[in-house]
Design a protein that fits this description.
Number of domains: 4
CATH superfamily of the largest domain: Nucleic acid-binding proteins
Low-confidence stretches: 1-11
Oligomer: single chain
CATH architecture of the largest domain: Beta Barrel
Mean pLDDT: 84
CATH class of the largest domain: Mainly Beta
Radius of gyration: 25 Å
Number of helices: 7
Structural class: alpha+beta
CATH topology of the largest domain: OB fold (Dihydrolipoamide Acetyltransferase, E2P)
Distance between the termini: 35 Å
Length: 349
C-alpha cells in the first residue's frame, strides 16, 4: 500500500471532509481504504460501531468516508464510516426538504402532540396538525387521552411524508403529510443520460461542491473536483446562488445525477501532453503547501507535487519555497492521461 502515499493529490482534503474511497482490505480490528492521496484507516470505536457494515464490504467496494485526523502515528489517515454515513443522511434530509420529495418513515412511538418517526436512522416528529385526513385521529370531544390511543395504533406503520424542517446541530427533524409530491422523479431522470449537456441554476453551495437545479424537482451535484481544471479551494469564490451554469452529466446512479462543469472546458493536460516529458527542467509556481509537500503549477490547471522528502522536512521546504513564487523543477513523473505530475527541486538552472 505504500505506493498510494506517492500519489499526487487532485484535491486537497482536510479534516471533516467527505470523500469516496475504495476498500483495500480489513483485518480483525481495522479497515483500510484507498482515498486517492493515501490510505485511510477505520479502527477503534468507529470500527466497532460500523462492524455490521464492514462485514459486508469486500476489497474493491466503494465507500463514503469522513476524514477524522490528517495522519496517525503509523502514517495512515484516520477516517470514519459512521460519521460519513451521518453526513450523507443529513445531506439527503436537507435535499429532500428543499425539493419537498417524499420519503418513507416508520412510526416508532406516539405522544399527545403527534408521532415519532424514524427515517434512515434519523428520529423525527410528525405533529398531529401535519397528518393527512386518513391518519388524523377523529375523536369526539377532542379527548387528549383518546387522541393518544388513536395515534398509538399507527406504531409500526410506514408513512409517506415530506421533511418540513431540520436542525442538524440539535438533530431535529420535522415531518409532514401535508406536502406530498407526486412521484415523477424517475420519469424526469429518465430524460437524461451520461454525456448530456444541461443548463441550470446554482441552488446550493457547500464545501465539497455546488448543487445545480436542472429543472423543477431535479437537482444534481457538481463535486469540487469537477468545477474547474485549476485548484478550487472554496466553491463560493467561483459561484453564487442563482448563477446560470452549464454542465455535463457524468453519472446517473440511484436517482442521483453527478455533473461536471470542467468537462465542458478545454483540458489543459491534453494541451500540454506533447510539450513535456520526464527529465525536463521547467519553471513552476508554488500554489499550495500540504503535509505531503508543495503543489506546483506549470500552467493554469496543470499542477503536480514536489514531495516534502526532497527537502528533508517541512520547515526546510518552506525555507526554500514561498507561495506564489516561481522556481525551477525537474519533472520526475508525467502522465497527462492520469493528470499526474511530480517534481524534484532544482537549486540552480
Amino acid at each position: 500500500m505504500e505506493d498510494l502515499f506517492d500519489r499526487v493529490p487532485i484535491e486537497n482534503y482536510k479534516v471533516n471532509d467527505l470523500i469516496e474511497g475504495m476498500v483495500l482490505k480489513q483485518d480483525r480490528n481495522s479497515l483500510y481504504v484507498d482515498i486517492g492521496f493515501g490510505v485511510g484507516i477505520v479502527f477503534g470505536k468507529d470500527f466497532f460501531e460500523s462492524r455490521n457494515l464492514i462485514k459486508k464490504l469486500r476489497a474493491g467496494d466503494k465507500v463514503m468516508v469522513k476524514i477524522l485526523e490528517s495522519e496517525t502515528p503509523e502514517g495512515f489517515v484516520e477516517i470514519s464510516l459512521k460519521e460519513a454515513d451521518k453526513e450523507v443522511i443529513w445531506y439527503e434530509a436537507e435535499k429532500n426538504m428543499r425539493e419537498r420529495s417524499s420519503v418513507n418513515a416508520v412510526v416508532t412511538a406516539a405522544n399527545k402532540g403527534g408521532l415519532l418517526l424514524e427515517w434512515n436512522g434519523l428520529s423525527g416528529f410528525l405533529p398531529t396538525s401535519h397528518l393527512n385526513s386518513s391518519h388524523y385521529p377523529k375523536v369526539e370531544g377532542g379527548s387528549k387521552e383518546k387522541i393518544l390511543e388513536e395515534l398509538k395504533k399507527n406504531i409500526g406503520d410506514t408513512f409517506t411524508v415530506t421533511i418540513s424542517d431540520i436542525n442538524q446541530k440539535e438533530e431535529s427533524v420535522i415531518f409532514s403529510e401535508k406536502h406530498i409530491q407526486s412521484e415523477g422523479k424517475k420519469a424526469i431522470i429518465a430524460q437524461y443520460q451520461a454525456g448530456d449537456v444541461v443548463e441550470g441554476k446554482v441552488s446550493g453551495l457547500v464545501d465539497f461542491g455546488i448543487f445545480m437545479k436542472i429543472k423543477e424537482g431535479l437537482e444534481g451535484l457538481v463535486h469540487i473536483s469537477e468545477l474547474d481544471w485549476s485548484l478550487v479551494e472554496n466553491p463560493a469564490d467561483f459561484f453564487k446562488i442563482g448563477d446560470t451554469v452549464q454542465a455535463k452529466v457524468v453519472n446517473i446512479e440511484n436517482e442521483k445525477i453527478s455533473l461536471s462543469i470542467k468537462a465542458l472546458k478545454n483540458n489543459p493536460w491534453e494541451e500540454i501532453k506533447d510539450q513535456y516529458q520526464k527529465g525536463d527542467i521547467v519553471s513552476g509556481v508554488v500554489i499550495r503547501f500540504n503535509k505531503y509537500g508543495a503543489l506546483v503549477s506549470i500552467k493554469e490547471g496543470v499542477a503536480g507535487l514536489i514531495h516534502v522528502s526532497e527537502f528533508g522536512n517541512e520547515k526546510n521546504m518552506k525555507n526554500k519555497l514561498e507561495l506564489g513564487k516561481s522556481y525551477y523543477f525537474q519533472i520526475t513523473f508525467f502522465s497527462p492521461a492520469e493528470c499526474r505530475l511530480t517534481f524534484s527541486f532544482v537549486e540552480e538552472k
